Amino acid sequence: MPVTDIGIDMGSSNTVVYTKGKGIVINEPTVVAYDKDTDKILAFGEEARQLIERTPGNVVAIRPLKAGVISDYSVTERLLKHFIQRALGRRAFRKPYISICVPSGVTEVEKRAVEEAAFQAGARDVTIVAETVAAAIGAGIDITKPVGNLVADIGAATTDVAVISLGAPVILSTVRVGGDTFSEAIARYVRRNHSLFIGEGLAEEIKIKIGTVTSRPNSESMQITGRNVITGLPRTISITSEEVRQACGEAATEIVETIHGVLEKTPPELSADIVERGIVLTGGGARLEGFEELIEDRTGINAMTAENPECAVAEGCGLYTEKIEQLSRMER
Hints:
The protein is an alpha+beta fold. The protein folds into two domains: about 5-30 and about 65-135 and about 315-330, 2-Layer Sandwich (Nucleotidyltransferase, domain 5); about 145-305, Nucleotidyltransferase, domain 5, CATH 3.30.420. The chain has helices at about 45-55, 75-90, 110-120, 130-140, 180-195, 200-210, 240-265, 270-275, 290-300, 310-330; strands at about 5-10, 15-20, 25-30, 30-35, 40-45, 60, 65, 70, 95-100, 125-130, 150-155, 160-165, 170-175, 195, 220-230, 235-240, 280, 305. Strand 11 (about 150-155) and strand 12 form a beta hairpin. Helix 5 packs across helix 6 and helix 7 packs across helix 9.
């Protein structure tokens, strides 16, 4: 199995790219700016996000992945090609070996669509990696050992939970709840309880600054401005971290229940390993304050967040082929 040149975590919200020898080189929105008047794509990634925010209504955002699955094949291919060329830079003298991750619950047809898009974007060879396996590698877990490790990867649109041993998931479960779910829940809460419309960008900012899924001893607050539901005029209010906890409670509970369900199905020998080693959280959604405490409270097992959770999957993709080769040598 050839060593990977580029590892790609192409998520619904962000695309993270790892290259051999350099580490993470790209972490940008999975979005393109499309001009409806000229029928042309104007920009990709971060450049596209900034362009969409500052231009007239004829320039719109296209997000080619929904819930980790390709919804617009041609745009996905062009976006992948753009990121691959940027990652390679001037070294693009040969086609790269690419490892790309997919959510654990996708179908074979969806896997082939991702693989084909990577080939069309210029890959020499493509390895499809399960998101939870990549997350485990990126979090520093040695997947080549015959011990159980529980990983919960909280992405933008989905959360993948798996018990991994000897390089593969033994038990896995996917729930369509993630970081975007929390942002949407905050926006709904503000509209329902404060009669205020706010955009997804502000909801995301609230989540990052004062978001929590457990009660804090000292509740923080934040001033936000939106459009009054009744008058249509701008209005400024204060929202507290306790209100954000209430808004995010249902989604957080779904994730914890998914982890609980995986633990219930885990063989006793691997369960003992998990109790000893703890639960590892990855993905951008894992940064929401209080997740470790909430999981520990509901399961009785220590939970810890990876050092760089939003980049763990891309790093794991980049290192995947080396780990699998190491595992195959051990088996021989």
